[in-house]
């Protein structure tokens, strides 16, 4: 048998890219490539990129610059750019970095083996189409190897919302849902291979319509799979949170009490200019209904500061919204101008204002997160253990609320990855909790 070739994939950006990278590795596995952890002796380097903010996109070019020496030493080395920068910038990438051999957009990954074959003898290959066929069905099915206790599963892609700041509708295209039966098959396969928690992914996951009764229907059906213990989903838009999905938070035991529901801003004026098509009061009302269904629900969110024309007063509305909701975790960003999106054309907030607002916002979020985490001390949680910790016998896992939890088990009760155990929380540190086992 010939030696396997070595593929190094570097993944940027969202969890969807993590899932896509896994699937591309599997597709290339069928072509005799095995994945390696370093670019140094790779035969192929693939960057799976993110275009959401300027910084993320620029990282790709500086990373490519680093591979110049490798390519000079090894002219056969193939370098590919996948993901949203590939989709948005296409041939421009090859102009800026002529050593790039292939460019493949996020909807064309199933064509990766064929594109790679086309790059023989220095030829270039580019594919940024939005083909009709389902890329996941064309990718080689997952090999049966064992895997860790948690997995991502993409169920929906693309977005029709056109928030005024966002490139996703352009890079990932219109909303498309995968049929429920295919997702069920993939989920059963993951569970057979050791997965106990699945996070359903989609840019607008709660707009999923591949099941008769939407995402709630899919979650209920997934709940019937024995051995699948936990279900999560991300990312949601407030306007797609329907009654059935709200009810599922109270009724479906396997659905975890943690919800990522970005609001971006707490100012009605800014929400309108962002084209979010809901108000802050509608967001509050939604959270009230969700918490009525599941009182211990931990909220998570995304925030943008310094969106064009955001005043100090608008910003304070965002701080006030955060004070009222109390987030268990959150991601926050300075607004970044994205070419081709409506907001890029509008009067911009000065950079130092953005810096100042981001600092104030993050200080508030951090305090809130710490308070909520500290409030877990003394409580019983269930922990799905994932990996060994730094101390002898210590294992680390996640609670239902996504807190990292460290436990050192007595010697005769060693914990294995994949164990789902009851833990009493005893202390809260800067980024994680510690506790003791109270039952199996
Ligand atoms: N600038 C800053 N943040 C952005 N996001 C999306 N587009 C931009 C942008 N142009 C943030 C939003 C979104 C998250 C994935 O990234 O908060 O929810
Ligand atoms: Fe981007 Fe999300 Fe808005 Fe769609 S809903 S445009 S993915 S921020």
From TrEMBL:
Gene Ontology CC: cytosol
Residues in Radical SAM core domain copies: 145-371
Bilayer-crossing regions: none
Organism: Tropicibacter naphthalenivorans
Note on cofactor: Binds 2 [4Fe-4S] clusters. One cluster is coordinated with 3 cysteines and an exchangeable S-adenosyl-L-methionine.
One MF term in the entry's GO annotations: tRNA-2-methylthio-N(6)-dimethylallyladenosine(37) synthase activity
Protein's name in the database: tRNA-2-methylthio-N(6)-dimethylallyladenosine synthase
Pfam families recorded: Radical_SAM, TRAM, UPF0004
Keyword flag Repressor: no
Disordered as annotated region, ranges: 336-355
Residues reported to bind [4Fe-4S] cluster 1: 14, 50, 84
InterPro entries: Elp3/MiaA/NifB-like_rSAM (IPR006638), Methylthiotransferase (IPR005839), Methylthiotransferase_CS (IPR020612), Methylthiotransferase_N (IPR013848), Methylthiotransferase_N_sf (IPR038135), MiaB_methiolase (IPR006463), rSAM (IPR007197), rSAM_horseshoe (IPR023404)
Catalytic activity: N(6)-dimethylallyladenosine(37) in tRNA + (sulfur carrier)-SH + AH2 + 2 S-adenosyl-L-methionine = 2-methylsulfanyl-N(6)-dimethylallyladenosine(37) in tRNA + (sulfur carrier)-H + 5'-deoxyadenosine + L-methionine + A + S-adenosyl-L-homocysteine + 2 H(+); N(6)-dimethylallyladenosine(37) in tRNA + (sulfur carrier)-SH + AH2 + S-adenosyl-L-methionine = 2-thio-N(6)-dimethylallyladenosine(37) in tRNA + (sulfur carrier)-H + 5'-deoxyadenosine + L-methionine + A + H(+); 2-thio-N(6)-dimethylallyladenosine(37) in tRNA + S-adenosyl-L-methionine = 2-methylsulfanyl-N(6)-dimethylallyladenosine(37) in tRNA + S-adenosyl-L-homocysteine + H(+)
Domain TRAM: 374-439
Entry function: Catalyzes the methylthiolation of N6-(dimethylallyl)adenosine (i(6)A), leading to the formation of 2-methylthio-N6-(dimethylallyl)adenosine (ms(2)i(6)A) at position 37 in tRNAs that read codons beginning with uridine.
Similarity comment: family membership: Belongs to the methylthiotransferase family. MiaB subfamily.
Cofactors (names): [4Fe-4S] cluster
Main location: cytoplasm
Record-listed [4Fe-4S] cluster 2 binding positions: 159, 163, 166
MTTase N-terminal domain segment(s): 5-121
Subcellular location as annotated: Cytoplasm
